[in-house]
Structures are given as C-alpha cells and as structure tokens.
Amino acid sequence: MKVVLTGASGFVGSFVLKLLLASGSHEVAIILREPNAAWRIEDELARVKVIPGDISNVSSFEGEINKFKPDAFVHLAWGGVLGDNRNDIRQWNNITDTLQLLEVASRVGASHWIGLGSQAEYGQCQAKVDEYVITNPTTLYGISKLAACNVAKKMCDELGMRFAWLRLFSSYGPTDNPSWMIPYLINSLLLDERPRLTAAEQLWDYIYVEDAAAAVVSVLENIDAEGIFNLGSGASTSLKVIIEKIRDYINPNLPLGFGEVAYRPDQVMHLEADVSRLNQLTNWSPCVDLDEGLDKTIRWRKARSSW
Description:
Low-confidence stretches: none
Helix content: 25-40%
Oligomer: single chain
Structural class: alpha/beta
Order of helices and strands: EHEEHEHEHEEHEEHEEHHH
Largest sheet: 7 strands, parallel
Mean pLDDT: 95
Number of helices: 9
Number of strands: 11
Shape: globular
C-alpha cells in the first residue's frame, strides 16, 4: 500500500513510520515541516519519499502528493499537544488543516483515511470507556479533536473513503517529550531531584508507544476496520503505583513530592480504554506490559542522560 503519513517526526508517528517500513509491504511518503527536528526518524529518511511542507498550506505541495499516487493517508500531525497549549485558540487551526488535507486525499485518489484522535474527546470519565460513551471534552484540544473527527467522518462518507479514527489514551516510551509525566519523573530522579507531583490518586491507562503504533498500522491494513476506536492498554493503574515503580527502578531511596502540585480544576481521575472493538476488528492487542515498558523507557533515558 502507498501511504502518506503526517506527523512522522513526532513521538507516535516515528514508531508508526518504522513499523510501516519494517513490514516491507508499504511505500511511504511523509510530509515534513521541519527537517532539522526529525531526529527521531533520521535513519529512515533515505527509505521514504520526503515531501517538504506544512499541512496548513497543503495546496503548495499537492502536486507532489499526486505524483506519489497514495492509497491511504495516516494523519497524526497536530499542533499544540502539550498541556500548556490545550486551551490555545489556535487549536481550531488543526480542524481546517485536517479537512483541507482530507480534500487533497480525495482529489489524489486515496481510498483510506486514518486519523489519530484523543481520549480528551470524552472529557471527564469515572469508569472504563468504550466508543459509545457520550463525548463531553473540557479543553479546546479535546473539542477540536472531536470536531475534526466528526467532520472528517462525514466528508469520508460523502467522498466514498474509508474512515477510521483512533482515540489514543496515554502513551509513553523512548523519545517521548520530556515535559510529560513519565519522562519528567525519570529525568528528575536520574538527577537525584525531588519531583513535584500531585497526590497521584488518578487511575491511568498507559500504553507503550510500540503497541500504539502497531494498532495504527493494524487499522490501516484491515480494510474492514472503520469508525472510531479506543487505543489504550485496556487496563488502568494508580499513578502513585506507576511513580513508585519508576522511583524503585532508579533508586528506592529517592524522595517523591506527592501532593506538592494541585489537581487541575478539570482533572480527569479515571482513564481506562475499552479496546475490545479494536481487538475484534483487527486482532490487535498490546504486547508490552507496564513493567517491561517502564524498564525499556528508563534504560533509554539512562543512556541519554543529557535529555
């Protein structure tokens, strides 16, 4: 299959790219806005078609996409994913960028559209979440993801394209952005610092990044996989337990600053994905358990202690 991938230089996208190439059955073109920031995929660039450009101006490189003649688009790019940006008014730009890219996908003859959503589309939940839970996002990030999902689905229906949307819960692993909780915690403890934390009473569903990437590729390759899918490990663990596991891997004697950071007003206390629909339609299931994933992540960060 000939695949156009956006967000290939990002955390999840870099692992999706590596899996697509490793399969040997896909030819991949990536839309790359900042070549200097593509450190996660620098070893793969020679094996893909690189289309320089910003998806906010997709018409400027539509001709290059058309020459590639893609069968499918896997759209992972999204601006403003970090916590400080989740209520930035510019979240709305992601909606128009997504829909303009989808229009181009249709014009160049692609038949499959795979997009990456977020658990933020659901808002505050207090139990395991399936795809039929009422969506009630509390941030502009979640609202924008949900809007992009809904309009893209309708457009795909009208254009005769397969539509799939994976709502990713919390992913982690090597190369993750150091501002997220797990890499922040690891980095702090490796420096013998006392990390500042909430009371950590939340129940959280963390999925190892290679498993998340495998799910995206599984949906791409199973043409009967349509609609919305939750993407998580399928189990929740207390954040306090996760934090203590990480501390104990590094040094059991290091202090932890539980309760030094207040919960946000819209703090989600229970994140747990029901992934049965994804499993049924693709036969995908996560392979890396929490202990193994944390071990791999800590080992990677120890080897790159300058992060």
